[in-house]
Amino acid sequence: MKGKRVFVLNGHPAESSLTGSLAQAYADAARDAGHDVRLTHLHDLQFDPDYGFGGYVNQKPLEPGLEQVLQDIEWAEHVVVATPVWWGGFPAKLKGLIDRAFLPGRTFDTRNTTAIGLPAPLLKGRTGRVLILSDTPNWVFRLFYRNALMVQLRGQVLGFVGIKPLKITQFSGASHPKDGMVQKWVRKVTAIGAVAG
């Protein structure tokens, strides 16, 4: 079986984190299984997360790290993002990466539209996986928050630019995991990574 080209983004801004450990476990398992893997840690990237101009006419030039992330996504057949949930959404630096790097002409096309009038996605042909770490239990996400972050990821971020199908795996109780839970999560992520799923 031919290996996939896999890009993994650890979306936690700290140098050491459980999110980063799971991203690393996924990347290691995928690489060991024969997939071609590129791994980027958000904490290693230096860029201004503020889009600043508020429009697409006067875009800030991309810093080298952001340009590399875009090139890695364009190279990949499968895109993996690991992120904690803070205040119901992404960490600010990860949101800043999306604001700055997911630009028209690279990730979507405002001059051409889909059948329902949305900008045409430019990253079609790639599948995705998101690893979400939160304190909020999964059932609370579903019942009280209507899976808002998952809907955003599928409809307004990764799915919007063409990364489909997008599978999401959530790990809850991340700040104070029960005994043995982290090892269980690592085993689960390792199994997913081995098939680049």
Automatic annotation (TrEMBL):
| Taxonomy, superkingdom | Bacteria
- Write down any Gene Ontology CC term: cytosol
Describe the location of the Flavodoxin-like fold domain by residue ranges: 4-179
What UniProt keywords are attached to this protein's entry? Answer: Oxidoreductase
Question: One Pfam family name from the record?
Answer: Flavodoxin_2
Q: Which InterPro entries match?
A: Flavodoxin_fold, Flavoprotein-like_sf, NAD(P)H_dehydrogenase_qn
Q: Which PANTHER family match?
A: NAD P H OXIDOREDUCTASE-RELATED, NAD(P)H DEHYDROGENASE [QUINONE] 1 ISOFORM 1
Q: Which family does it belong to?
A: Belongs to the NAD(P)H dehydrogenase (quinone) family.
Record-given protein name:
Putative NADPH-quinone reductase (Modulator of drug activity B)
User: To which species is this protein native?
Assistant: Shimia aestuarii
